[in-house]
Automatic annotation (TrEMBL):
<keyword id="KW-0963">Cytoplasm</keyword>
<protein>
    <recommendedName>
        <fullName>Pantothenate synthetase</fullName>
        <ecNumber>6.3.2.1</ecNumber>
    </recommendedName>
</protein>
<feature type="binding site">
    <location>
        <begin position="30"/>
        <end position="37"/>
    </location>
    <ligand>
        <name>ATP</name>
    </ligand>
</feature>
<feature type="binding site">
    <location>
        <position position="153"/>
    </location>
    <ligand>
        <name>(R)-pantoate</name>
    </ligand>
</feature>
<dbReference type="Pfam" id="PF02569">
    <property type="entry name" value="Pantoate_ligase"/>
</dbReference>
<comment type="similarity">
    <text>Belongs to the pantothenate synthetase family.</text>
</comment>
<feature type="binding site">
    <location>
        <position position="61"/>
    </location>
    <ligand>
        <name>beta-alanine</name>
    </ligand>
</feature>
<dbReference type="InterPro" id="IPR003721">
    <property type="entry name" value="Pantoate_ligase"/>
</dbReference>
<comment type="pathway">
    <text>Cofactor biosynthesis; (R)-pantothenate biosynthesis; (R)-pantothenate from (R)-pantoate and beta-alanine: step 1/1.</text>
</comment>
<dbReference type="InterPro" id="IPR042176">
    <property type="entry name" value="Pantoate_ligase_C"/>
</dbReference>
<keyword id="KW-0547">Nucleotide-binding</keyword>
<feature type="binding site">
    <location>
        <begin position="184"/>
        <end position="187"/>
    </location>
    <ligand>
        <name>ATP</name>
    </ligand>
</feature>
<feature type="binding site">
    <location>
        <begin position="147"/>
        <end position="150"/>
    </location>
    <ligand>
        <name>ATP</name>
    </ligand>
</feature>
<keyword id="KW-0566">Pantothenate biosynthesis</keyword>
<keyword id="KW-0067">ATP-binding</keyword>
<dbReference type="GO" id="GO:0004592">
    <property type="term" value="F:pantoate-beta-alanine ligase activity"/>
</dbReference>
<feature type="active site" description="Proton donor">
    <location>
        <position position="37"/>
    </location>
</feature>
């Protein structure tokens, strides 16, 4: 695996892939890799492309009171995992490369960015859309792979790619979970043993609520029950909401693809998860 820190080197490496006639897939990450990221690399490899992974802890998607400073950084271990997974190139830009002095542009995706995490984390999706646009322009991939765990992020990126005519296939990869069902996340390492044990209530509550909605129980009722069980398990709930799986609009009809999304805090750690609501 080639590792590059410099934009000119990256462009030369991409040109060499293109000269071989290769298609290129991008897997953007913020590092602290786990099996969820490796599933993205595997999916990209199965698509028969050269795989470029990026690691960049993007400061513009963290709010002032969020965990930018303590976000886990494990470059050497990440690099070993990527080699083992068969990644072809690791792009490790610096903050100065991504946001040089005088940087003044923002990509903002209205609508789909504004609710749920967009409401709880103002500016978060502007930071994501801006950095992903830069990564797309730097790597010029044919496809890019994102985890469904960050479901709203995936829909924001799909909207942006459509709106701005990026010729890039956006592939969503199902959430990878621990044996007990907790979605893998780089932030799970913040949980102490007791919090980790309680955190399983999140996927469980979503599963129960999704099945209830599929049986015809009103979504507000099922979501309220999920909230009650999350609070009983020790969570502070931000939202549990049923939305249209594509537009993220509230109150979707039963004839639409639907997704139940939740965000809740266990101690200092904010966890998100989501589940498709399918009719039995
Ligand atoms: O999902 C993430 O890790 C980040 O939001 C992303 C897409 C790499 C942008 O910084």
């Amino acid at each position: 695996m080639q590792t590059v820190h410099d934009l000119n080197e990256l462009r030369a490496a991409i040109a060499a892939f293109r000269a071989e006639g290769a298609r290129i897939a991008l897997v953007p990450t913020m590092g602290a890799l786990h099996a969820g990221h490796i599933a993205l690399i595997d999916a990209a490899k199965r698509a028969g492309t050269k795989v470029v992974a990026s690691i960049f802890v993007n400061p513009t998607q963290f709010g002032p009171n969020e965990d930018l400073a303590r976000y886990p950084r494990r470059e050497a271990a990440d690099s070993r995992m990527l080699v083992e997974a068969g990644c072809d190139l690791l792009w490790l830009p610096t903050v100065e490369t991504m946001y040089p002095d005088g940087f003044a542009s923002t990509v903002s995706v209205a609508g789909v960015s504004e609710t749920l995490d967009g409401a709880s984390r103002p500016g978060h999706f502007d930071g994501v859309a801006t950095v992903v646009t830069k990564l797309f322009n730097q790597v010029s991939p044919d496809a890019a792979f994102f985890g469904e765990k960050d479901y709203q992020q995936l829909q924001v990126i799909r909207r942006m790619v459509n709106d701005l005519d990026f010729a890039i296939d956006i592939v969503g990869v199902p959430t990878q979970r621990d044996d007990d069902g907790l979605a893998l996340s780089s932030r799970n390492i913040y949980l102490d043993e007791e919090e980790r044990a309680k955190a399983v209530a999140l996927p469980r509550a979503l599963g129960v609520a999704a099945r209830a909605i599929a049986r015809g129980i009103p979504a507000e009722e099922a979501a309220a029950e999920a909230q009650t069980s999350l609070v009983a398990a020790g969570f502070t709930v931000d939202y549990v909401t049923l939305v249209d799986a594509e537009t993220l609009a509230a109150n979707p009809g039963a004839d639409r693809p639907r997704r139940l999304l939740a965000a809740a805090r266990m101690g200092q750690t904010r966890l998100i998860d989501n589940i498709a609501v399918t009719l039995d």
